[in-house]
Amino acid sequence: MNRALPTSQHTIGPFFPRTYFGPTDHDLRRRTATATPSPRGEAIRIAGRVTRAGGEVCVNALLEAWQADAGGHFDHPADPDAAAADPDFLGWGRAATDAEGRYHFLTLLPGGYVEGNHRRAPHVNLQIMASGLMRPVLTTLFFPGFSAENAADPVLAMVPEGRRGLLLAQAEGDSEGLRCFRFDIRLRGDPAEETPFFVE
Amino acid sequence: MRIDSVPPWPEGIEPQVPTEGYAGTFTHTPAVPPIRRPPGRTELTAPRDLAAKLPCGDDNLAVLGHGRMALGQYIHIAGRILDEDARPIAHAVVELWQANAAGRYFHPIDTRDAPLDPDFIGNGRIRTDAEGRFGFFTIRPGAYPVPSKNNWWRPPHVHFSVLGPASLSRLVTQMYFPGDPMNAYDHILNSVPDAAARERLIARQLPPHEVGLGWLGFVHDIVLRGRAATPEQP
Ligand SMILES: [Fe+2]
After folding, report:
1. Distance from CA of B202 to the nearest CA of A (A)
2. Any chain A CB within 8 A of the CB of B198?
3. Residues in chain B closer than 8 A to A115 (CB atoms)
4. What CATH fold (topology level) applies to the domain A18-186?
5. Are residues B222 and B160 in contact, defined by beta-carbon separation less than 8 angstroms?
6. Nearest 5°: CA angle at A9, between A7 and A12?
7. Which of B41, B58, B134, B174 to mutate to test the interface with A (most CBs of A within 10 A)?
């Protein structure tokens, strides 16, 4: 078998083209720009701010979200139950931060799933790319209201106990009939406040 | 395609962070080291057909429309997207963006006083074919200075963003041009510790007689993380 070494990562820089963003790219419920959002689950809004050292805002950062559908399935060959996946839900979305460092996504509340001997709590993986970040950072957002599931999640368990709360989105009322969750991302700061990041 | 296993990043390939000479990395790089987790289902999956969401097919940046030819040296960049077993990755989404011949981006944040070219936007997105191949017609980008205290100029480079078969194979990188004396001074290229890994970020120029008269040809392969599951034998 041939071996090839992975290409080095670089920063996305400040000039990731705005023309790459379609008006519904931040909506994980749509497989195409014009598709009707999948109705199979509870529609929610996830929003927050990205900040860097000193609490300064991070402008024109790129965020990509990836999650299971409301039933906890992925339409992908690595999911043993892929046939049960929602045929209309994409589970992927992309958003850029504005001048105040704000981003938002529309999606369905993800389902948890069983993997090996563990049960994964409902979660959304987020990848953040920005000027000044030579390697993208990866984090995972968990939801309030799932205390038993969160307590049993093997990924959350790898985070030192005092920092786990930083991965929990905050319920923040309703907007246009959708439950809203706030998830701020602090790229660099006091370790007590910095968002926990992962690497595989 | 399905990614089966993921070796850790080999030594020397990941850029050193924070990066000497690149002030922004000292305010953006997390202070706490990332937590190493074994890849699970969420990391080993990705959308099956992202091209439906992200429209692909824009492979000619040099010609904006009828009679609208960009200023600059015409080039073609061809390559393949591969996995760590050097197997081609079909239907990966490849995004490319770059500065114009004067080193200015068509982007509202780039306010440098170099000229914009009305016939050059500099963004393209395509999907790799069944053999993992991609190709773009474009122009050779210009170098540009980074607003900084250390008189840093970026050498000519092309930005690439690749979305592959698993979310952990997501890659953002840059491609450089062979023989450019500016490559030796770039803080971003030289943040990669391993010399061979830096060399792999530099495209190879084809001999002109193999390309034709219209443009210069460059070849550049990109390797995503992960090894594909062995295909089932029939
Ligand atoms: Fe650049």
Report:
1. 11
2. yes
3. 40-41
4. Protocatechuate 3,4-Dioxygenase, subunit A (2.60.130)
5. yes
6. 135
7. B41
pLDDT tens by residue, chain B, 234 residues: 788 889 899 999 999 999 999 999 999 999 999 999 999 999 999 999 899 999 999 999 999 888 899 999 999 999 999 999 999 999 999 999 999 999 999 999 999 999 999 999 999 999 999 999 999 999 999 999 999 899 999 999 999 999 999 999 999 999 999 999 999 999 999 999 999 999 999 999 999 999 988 999 999 999 999 998 765 444
The pTM assigned to this predicted structure is 0.96
Q: Which residue spans within chain A are E strands per DSSP?
A: 43-51, 62-67, 92-96, 102-108, 113-115, 118-120, 123-129, 137-142, 170-175, 178-182, 185-186, 198-199
Indicate the CATH number for domain B3-223: 2.60.130.10
**How many Cβ atoms sit within 10 Å of the Cβ of residue A163?**
16
Judged against a pLDDT cut of 60, whether residue A83 lies above it is answered with yes
Active site residues of B: 105, 144, 154, 157, 159
* Domains in chain B: boundaries: 3-223
A8 contacts chain B (CB < 8 A): yes
